Amino acid sequence: MFVVKGLGNPTLPGKKFSACRMHNLLTKTEEFVTSMKKIFFALALMFFAVAPAFAVTFDGFVADEAKILSAEIKKSINERALDLQSRTNADIAVVTAKKKHIKNKTTADYAREIGRTKKIGSESKNEGVVFLVVPDGASGQRMRIEVGYGLEGVLTDGKSGRILDDHVVPWFKKRDYQKAVEQGFTAIFAELNGYYENPTEHAKKEQSGEMLGWIVLAIPILFLFTVLLYVFLSYDGEGFSSGGGGSSGSSSGGFRGSSGFGRSGGFGGFGGGGGFGGGGAGR
């Protein structure tokens, strides 16, 4: 018989042994539960860290993840986008997001993944556009026009950049992000609508615009060539020939930089395309 000091009741060896085993079992169980909680927490962090960037919810043609668009603006965008899709098969997807949605991705990667996974544009021609706006994004990562393969000749990188510069950036500076989205979409819609209504005329305008750009670029080059030719002809082996006149002038030119509804009204989803290769521009 064993007697626990301070107690008058005897304790059998078997009971003491069982109590120890029970204590150890409880301790190990608590450690196991604690470890499982840590593992579960770590897995949860990993899941959210690598959560797909394209996990956005579209309401028609609009995914307002940043919650900056009114119901009226979304309705207007959806109606015009649906009209364009029904006539041309082209899709314009409008997405607003915050930095926490994009995480460590660039706006180009984020928009491209949305275009591919949501299959923006028709399956046969991939004529899709993703217009992305990130109100709290860092400089250079605030907006993006990502263009599908089928529209890269219509919405070129330069033209996409001009749309952002002329129609989106000014409203961003005023912190009117809803207006920035509305005006950007309107400009993209007008560009695509003009192309599909009269492709030949659109092509002529593109060619004339490119020609004007080359002319503007050629002016300073031609001027520099003329000056060098004059200097060369004026040199007689010992120095510059006397006489003659001088001229001065200035010229500049170049190209603008580029980079970068409930489901009502008949919207049945995007066209099944998703061919995006990196064309477009961002700011």
Summarize the structure.
With 283 residues, the chain is an alpha/beta fold. Helix content is 51%, strand content 11%.
Describe this structure in words.
This protein is 51% helix and 11% strand. It has a 5-stranded mixed beta sheet, with helices on both faces. A two-stranded antiparallel ribbon has the order 1-2. The protein is elongated. The longest helix is centred in the N-terminal third of the chain and has 37 residues, at 13-49. The protein contains 7 helices and 7 strands. Helix 2 runs parallel beside helix 6. By secondary structure, the protein is α/β, with parallel strands linked by helices.
Number of helices: 7
- Main β-sheet, in a few words? 5 strands, mixed
Rounded to an integer, what's the Rg over CA atoms? 33 Å
Mean pLDDT over the full residue set: 77
Low-confidence parts lasting 5 or more residues at pLDDT below 50?
48-53, 240-265
Helix content: 40-55%
- Structural class of the helices, strands and pairings? alpha/beta
Summarize the helix and strand pattern as letters: EEHEHEHHEEHHHE
Question: How much strand?
Answer: 5-15%
Query: In total, how many beta strands?
Result: 7
Distance between the termini: 86 Å
Envelope shape = elongated
- Read across the widest sheet, the strand sequence of neighbours is 3-4-5-6-7
